[in-house]
Design a protein that fits this description.
- This protein is of the alpha/beta class and about 900 residues long.
- The chain has four domains: about 150 residues, Aspartate Aminotransferase, domain 1; about 210 residues, Type I PLP-dependent aspartate aminotransferase-like (Major domain) (Aspartate Aminotransferase, domain 2, 3-Layer(aba) Sandwich), CATH 3.40.640; about 220 residues, Rossmann fold; about 200 residues, Class I glutamine amidotransferase (GATase) domain (Rossmann fold).
- Helices cover about 35% and strands about 20% of the residues.
- The strands form eight sheets. Strands 26, 28, 29, 31, 32, 33, 34, 35, 36, 37 and 38 form an eleven-stranded mixed beta sheet that branches.
- A hairpin with a 5-residue loop joins strand 17 and strand 18.
- The longest helix has 23 residues.
Length: about 900
């Protein structure tokens, strides 16, 4: 047995003796497998305060860099780590020849006694246990200089200088692990300068977390070696990366004892880019500094808990009461799933001492609440689960990055110790794209949970849609949230959709906050406004959640839109705030759904990926068992299961969320020709169409052929033409004229060849003029309308929002709906077609009654009036009237049918578990 084998065996014995194989909280932190086994929990359930890693998690660019490097794994890595060493040298202000890269700074620590062959290793204790282990492995004797609790475990330069002998290797933590004490660098370098026959290794593994703290690299005497860790600061302990800086000749000696290729290809590239990421470093120091101050203040206020001065991203303390740190650690782990570091295996420390990492505000709050519970002190409320950090910049390019601050920051949670809201169980549906079906699935799960006896409500932080609805209080929200509210059998509430964006141009939208219009904003102005908007969103969510047993949230678009992620407030940031597991929905009918699932996860940051609980395959036609191989691949690749396959549901009988379906043509009838015995209703497809669901009630009628008219020729054979609502009446009027629609509609109306109906914006278009003096939609000049009705409209700054009932005068039948419009339309009293109970005009008709318009959205939802309207069309066409209601427009049965199908398609047991039930 050679000396290296003997040393290795001695190291094993040393670690057993030191207690590093125990199942308690001593030993190296971060051993999740050991901690999970002791707690009886899966590793993912452990909240680990024993390892001192960056609470931000890895940089967001890490995953794409790793993915890019996979193709290069067929080649050996550069054994000299040239590109990495050059980047490190630039960052540290030294030459590449002075830099040694290693598989973590621990590899370099163990290389030092073998490379330098010291007479002994001098340690200031307590200190990191592997300092001594490295000496033991190399057969080097160890001398110790104890640090006193009375001095805060601070290194005394005079005592150190007196203890150093020629041939020593002195190892000092700057800052110290576990105490966090930061020695005086100038004094240390002075001691090293006075002892040129000894080597001094300064371990700066945690120095990057300290703002404005200089490194010893590049300013040291020739006998000083600086150890640096990238593992901790960049939260990549599983990747392993570190370096040391030493005089050129010393660096060469260290490099000579290392094996070739100890730093793999991925680690080299990650390290090269990491040291260039100034924004990540800034955000880290800001977050850690803030959270450290808050945690230290709250922890130090616990009776019997003494904290020692320190500067690192961890806190070092002592329990002076009856409960020892080991007992506390066991309780925290087994009762709360929280791991802390017990420090009794450090020289000079006993079981009273402990160390905890600084993590996010929410996680720190959990630790404090658990410690108060176990130590019998007054309880400290847990901090709210709000993201502490801004979403970080987009993936780093190969060239040095130029990264500015995020434009939108979700600010930190309330300070540790402040009261927090009740955490209501929640689930969130997000999509791989817009129109993946998440709105309908949200409604379905709302109805399912209602059937299961829960008080449930929907929530969508921000919706971009021209299809809106008016609540009973006169607020405007997305139509989809109104449908979801009905699924919950709730009155629609502006809190369910705090922000509604109604596009009125290619670059701008009307912003509606808490149901009321704020202003028209372009993208940049809205970006500046988001800080105010996010406060309203969180207040609405908290208020709504406090009144219900569960909240089903809906995202918007895709969480993987890398150009939008930094500013996003509706997808992952909202899911994190609500502590809502995310189900990612994909539309298999469009194709590429599994690539979309994988691709979406690949562009998510690690904290975002952790929120994704599984996938839902939507709109599948066929035998779902044929998808099992794809589901197995997805599970193996992402670690997330498919939690359901929802079939393609035809003729749901539910209003669509927005105009995607309408404009895609999916809702077009199968045949363009008018079938015998039916009337044809043509709906003009306007560029800024809104509230297109006004035609939904016709879809269930057996004698109706609906046509979506995208060109004037599509109006041929139409028995009725509907001009729907518009978010930009003046712009859509210009479109009608430019495309020939205006001329064609006017000709058909004047000849009586087709009945023409205008709803809201369509009603305004039918008049003589539309005037916009306040520039609500235009430059303010009056615009001529189609002149088919004797009315004139003036756009008002204030929007009319009302739920309304009225009587259709020609039929005598009651109609009901809601009004959403800026326009104020003046008409002759004798032209009234629909009157409100108080005598107000809700609709106007031509003398013949074949041209009419109304502000009432949902006017055709009334079954009796709809049948009267259709029978009048039938009579004009020479068909006998049916004389009775043939279809009931009632979405309640449709919601129950939807819930039945989705319940059978989703793993509802898994969903209930996600809700904590």
């Amino acid at each position: 047995m050679d000396s290296w084998e003997k040393s290795s065996l001695f190291l094993v014995w040393f670690r057993v003796f030191r207690g590093e194989n125990k199942t308690d909280m001593s030993g190296h932190g971060g051993n999740l497998e050991r901690l999970a086994a002791a707690a009886g929990l899966p590793p993912a359930a452990i909240l680990d305060f024993s390892a001192n890693l960056n609470p931000l998690g890895p940089p967001e660019w890490l995953r794409p860099v790793v993915s890019r490097c996979v193709s290069e794994l067929v080649h050996y890595p550069d054994p000299d780590c040239r590109a990495l060493r050059e980047a490190l040298a630039r960052a540290l202000g030294v030459t590449p020849a002075e830099v040694v890269a290693g598989n973590g700074s621990n590899e370099l620590l163990y290389a030092l006694p073998r490379a330098l062959n010291p007479a002994r290793m001098l340690l200031c204790t307590p200190c990191y246990g592997d300092y001594e282990a490295a000496a033991v492995a190399a057969g080097v004797p160890v001398a110790k200089l104890p640090l006193a609790p009375e001095s805060g475990f601070q290194v005394d330069p005079g005592r150190l200088a007196a203890a150093v002998a020629a041939g020593d290797l002195v190892v000092v933590g700057t800052p110290n692990n576990p105490t966090g004490a930061l020695p005086d660098l100038a004094a240390l370098l002075g001691v090293a300068q006075r002892h040129p026959a000894a080597f001094f290794a300064l371990d700066e593994a945690f120095l990057d977390f300290l703002p404005d703290t200089p490194t010893a690299a590049g300013r040291s005497p020739q006998n000083v070696i600086v150890l640096r860790s990238l593992t901790k600061f960049y939260a990549i302990p599983g990747l392993r990366l570190g370096c040391c800086v030493a005089a050129t000749e010393v660096a060469a000696r260290i490099r000579a004892v290392l094996p070739d290729w100890s730093v793999n290809r991925i680690a080299q590239e990650v390290g090269r880019l990491a040291v260039q990421d100034a924004e990540y470093a800034r955000a880290t120091r800001e977050l850690v500094g803030r959270n450290r101050r808050e945690l230290a203040a709250a922890l130090g206020a616990i009776p019997g808990c003494t904290l020692f001065p320190g500067t690192a991203n961890y806190l070092f303390g002592r329990l002076d009461g009856a409960v020892r740190a080991g007992e506390l650690a066991t309780r925290l782990l087994r009762r709360h799933g929280i791991a802390i570091r017990v420090c009794d295996n450090y020289d000079g420390l006993d079981e009273r001492y402990f160390r905890v990492a600084v993590r996010t505000a929410a996680e720190n709050g959990r630790l404090l609440a658990a410690m108060h519970a176990e130590l019998g002190a007054a309880p400290a409320p847990e901090a709210a689960a709000l993201p502490d950090e801004a979403p970080r910049p987009a993936p780093l390019p190969a060239a040095p990055p130029d990264l500015g601050p995020a434009l939108f920051t979700v600010r930190s949670a309330p300070a540790v110790g402040t009261p927090r809201r009740r955490r209501t169980p929640a689930i969130m549906f997000q999509g791989t794209s817009s129109n993946a079906g998440k709105s309908v699935l949200t409604a379905a799960v709302c109805r399912i949970l209602l059937q299961d006896g829960l008080r449930v409500a929907p929530f969508k932080a921000q919706n971009m849609s021209l299809n809106s609805y008016v609540t009973a209080s006169g607020g405007e929200i997305g139509r989809a949230q109104a449908l979801q509210a009905q699924a919950c059998r709730l009155e629609p509430d502006v809190r369910m959709n705090p922000i509604l964006l109604k596009p009125n141009s290619d670059t701008g939208s009307q912003v509606i906050l808490r149901g009321k219009a704020v202003a028209n904003m372009d993208v940049r102005r809205y970006g500046d406004y988001k800080a105010e908007a996010i406060r309203a969103v969180l207040e609405c969510y908290d208020s709504l959640a406090a009144e219900h047993d569960a909240i089903i949230l809906e995202g918007a678009g895709s969480p993987g839109e890398i150009n939008l992620k930094r500013h996003d407030l509706v997808n992952m940031a909202m899911a994190r705030y609500a502590a809502a597991p995310v189900l990612l929905v994909g539309d298999i009918d469009r194709g590429g759904v599994y690539a979309a699932f994988v691709g979406t996860l690949e562009v998510l940051a690690e904290w975002e990926r952790e929120l994704v609980a599984g996938f839902v395959v939507n709109r599948f036609r066929g035998d779902a068992s044929l998808l099992q191989d794809a589901h197995d691949y997805l599970l193996n690749h992402t670690g997330r299961p498919v939690l359901g396959v929802v079939p393609y549901l035809k003729n749901l009988g539910l209003p669509e969320e927005d105009s995607v379906e309408f404009k895609s043509g999916r809702t077009d009838p199968a045949g363009a020709a008018t079938a015998a015995g039916r009337v044809t209703i043509a709906v003009v497809d306007l560029p800024h169409i809104s509230n297109f669901t006004d035609i939904d009630a016709f879809r269930g009628e057996p004698d109706v052929q609906l046509k979506i008219a995208r060109r004037p020729a599509d109006l041929a054979n139409a028995d009725a033409i509907i001009l729907p609502g518009s978010k930009n009446t003046i712009g859509d009027l210009a479109h009608l004229r430019a495309t020939g629609f205006a001329e064609r509609i006017g000709d058909l109306a004047r000849r009586g060849a087709a009945e023409v109906v205008g709803i809201c914006g369509g009603f305004q278009m039918l008049g003589r003029t539309v005037h916009d003096p306040g520039g609500v939609e235009s430059d303010g000049r009056p615009v001529p309308g189609l002149a088919l009705l004797d009315v004139a409209t003036v756009m008002a700054p204030e929007k009319t929002l009302a739920r309304t009932r009225g009587v259709h005068l020609a039929s005598g039948l009651e109609v009901a709906g809601y009004e959403i419009h800026h326009g104020q339309t003046a008409a002759p009293a004798g032209a009234a077609a629909i009157r409100a109970p108080g005598g107000g005009i809700l609709g106007v008709a031509s003398p013949e009654g074949t041209i009419w318009g109304t502000y009432l959205h949902g006017v055709f939802d009334a079954d009796a009036f709809r049948r009267w309207f259709l029978d009048r069309l039938r009579t004009r066409k020479g068909l006998p009237p049916l004389g009775q209601v043939c279809a009931r427009y009632d979405i309640e049965p449709a919601l129950d049918r939807l819930a039945e199908v989705v319940r059978a398609s989703l793993d509802m047991n898994a969903l209930h578990r996600l809700l904590g039930r």
